Known about the structure:
By secondary structure, this protein is of the alpha/beta class. It has a domain of 234 residues: Nucleoside phosphorylase/phosphoribosyltransferase catalytic domain (Pyrimidine Nucleoside Phosphorylase, Chain A, domain 2, 3-Layer(aba) Sandwich), CATH 3.40.1030.10. The chain is 47% helix and 14% strand. Helix 3 crosses helix 9, helix 5 packs across helix 14 and helix 14 crosses helix 15. The longest helix has 17 residues.
Amino acid sequence: MQGLIEKVRSGAELDEDDIAIATVQLISATVDDALKADFLAQLHERGETAGEIGAFVRQLLARAKDPGIDLASLSGPAIDVCGTGGDGLDLFNVSTTIMFILAAGGAVVLKHGNRSVTSCCGSADVLEELGVSLVLEAGNLRHCIEDLGLCFLFARHYHPVFRALAATREHLARRKTRTIFNLLGPLLNPARPPRQLLGVYASRLTRVFAQVLQKLGRERAWVVYGRAENGAGMDDLSVCGASTVAELKNGEIATREVESASAGVSLGTLAELRGGDRAENAALLIGILAGEIHGAKREMTLLNAGAGFVIAGVAETLPAGVALAREQIESGRALARLRALQNFTA
């Protein structure tokens, strides 16, 4: 491990063999936690490359539990929707809300998520509050996808290796030090869906993550970074200002700016997008899907769901995707998917 730390300090990029060794060292009970923390902190300070992130993803996915999902047998295009977190804004659960809209509109959503690490309420927290079971056995998971067109893959269940890193991550959290593990979550879906809407907490990461997804063989993806009216960044498409989008399509990456107004949604403010604890966020999710909550939160939901429909190939353009998302709410189909998931796993 000390040799790897010195290599990172020199500014050199770690190769696949280095990452394989690092992974073994990081999950070993015999390696000192302080040494692990030093390696992770040095790597983050130097800046993780797309190659290094991709190599860590491959190492961790090789150790993950297989959910047993046959992508070729699914009724529609499979997509994951999630973000890195880390923006510190405590918004409502955008990606968890849109999973029901996307499933209602014809996409198959394989949502990977976890409990909160950097916010008040993570996807697992809000779903649990809604009465959704976080873990299904393989047979029930397949039935859930077949019947409802969606499922939730609880990261802690599918990545037991993370338990070996708990002490190290707590050590770094006390130092308020970010590491590569603040980046990896959205990339570790054990079902490996070919399409993805992925939000990042820093603009510079949009192209980096697009390159990682390219290396991982994704068919199509948007990596997004939104801006609030005060300049704050968020790991979603924003209705408060412009958003940077790095799109992976046909093996190529293109970066552009997206204005929410051009997509057919209204502008809002950051204050209007704030969420709360798990009970409040669960109520917000239901209210949006039921058509009872309007304003910025609904517009934010429509914008991000619209992007999901484009990535899944269900809509040709972002305005068309937004219109399709609005239809799923107004028809009651999105709320029906939530109720069906609650009943399925109750």
